[in-house]
Amino acid sequence: MSKAISDPHPSAPVSLPDEAEMSPLVEQALTLARENGADGAEAGLSVGNGLSVRVRMGEIDTLQQKRDHAFSVTAHFGQSVGSAGCNQLQPEAIRAAVEAACAIARSTAPDPCNGLAEPELLARDPVDLDLYHPWDLNPENAIDLARACEAAGLAHDTRLSNSEGATLSSRSSVRCYGNSNGFLATTRGSYHSLVCVMVAADDTGMQRDYWTTVSRDPARLESGESVGAEAGRRAVARLGAAPIDTCTVPVVFAAPVARGLIGSMLGAISGGSLYRKASFLLDQLNQTICAEHLDILERPHLRGGLGSATFDAEGVATHDRDLVKAGVLGGYLLGSYSARKLGMRSTGNAGGAHNVLVQSQRTLDLPALLARMGTGLFVTELMGQGVNMVTGDYSRGAAGYWVQNGEIGAPVEGVTIAGNLKTMFTQIDAVGADVDMRSNLLTGSILIEQMTVAGS
User: Which residues contact 271 (CB under 8 A, 6 or more apart)?
Assistant: First the structure.
């Protein structure tokens, strides 16, 4: 069990504007749009504080502290829309942005799918999902934590004499969004992370690997020492990596890379891909698209979740949804525009998916998952972008470990794994219990029955 970073709690809250300061600015923009002839409008204002420090070999490489703010407005003139923004919050700047949005809308061709989200779909009672845990971290303490992280990695093994650094980042933000259908709400959030990248070397060559911890609450971050040590362990374990002979074998995607598979599925059922007919899952609603033991669930209201939200980027209320149930595709990911293009209604996914959970009736711990695979490739890193979202063809560079009789063996690199996502999803044989919580896509390792591994 990893220890938490010592004394991560803020001594005082980070200063950000409150709802009483932000709401009038958004309301002002909506009113100005109406006064300029708009039939409807929407506006958003965001303010954030951030601190980031990167240390390499004990020396400060970068140190950034920033406060940023952004304002955006979209004006609707019938079925024509125009958008503009600014990074100043003075009334004159907001007025200029609104006038620019209206001018753009007047000269834009109409599209029957344009328009605000339907009033009946809007969130009317947003709830607190425990997403805001500011960290009043001064630069000196941040530097000390990053240095301790890197030092722990270097101390893990004598073969670790170099690093690509340790980076500590902390950000808190507040956003107010409103539209002329009567929606106005303010949300706060925080995001903290620590990552360390270590370089190992011996007579076989050099290898690098990393580890990271992520949370909305700094109290839930792994300690810097454990992050550095794990990065060091992983780098050393890859020493001596080499290609294997070309073969067709089962493949286990380690949890951190398995979420990329699920991300490809989510991209394929997103409205933009569907109405452009650029999806390998076109016309698959209510059809079996993956193994029958598999459920893929959207749970937007998890407390503290990295993808939690009570409403989407258009103010539409979010709800628990079963995207895939027993292998059958039960729903798409739609915002208002893409929903209208498809003759459907928004699913509250303007801006993307929220917390997505992969669950299986065949869930095993990692040793049992590898034992079930028997002999094959355990993939821990993927390279390249070889995914064709139209056909589902999949081909990516990979590194990891050869598994023999369920036991992890020699490190592997310089290979390519290939298949087709439509087949791969139906050949998901089991899912690991080792769920990676560092994303809004929550999955364990995934075992695919068979893939082509192109090596030497």
Answer: 332, 333, 334, 335, 337, 338, 339, 341, 342, 349
User: Residue 172 burial (CB < 10 Å; 0-12/13-18/19+)?
Assistant: buried
What confidence tens digit (pLDDT) does each residue in 320-348 have? 999 999 999 999 999 999 999 999 999 99
Let me know if domain 19-237 sits in CATH 3.10.20.600: no
* Cβ atoms of 74 and 41 closer than 8 Å: yes
Per-residue b or e along 300-338, where b marks 16 or more CB atoms closer than 10 Å to that residue's CB: bebeebbbbbbbbbbbbbbeebebbbebbbbbbbbbbbb
- The CA-atom distances, in angstroms, between 131 and each of 100, 187, 268, 362 are 34, 9, 28, 32
Q: Determine the pLDDT at residue 136.
A: 87
Residue that is written with structure tokens 């980070």 in the block: 14
The predicted-structure confidence for 119-170, as pLDDT tens digits, reads as follows: 999 998 888 999 999 998 999 999 999 999 999 999 999 999 899 999 999 9
Domain boundaries, the chain: 19-237, 247-454
CA 278 to chain centre: 22
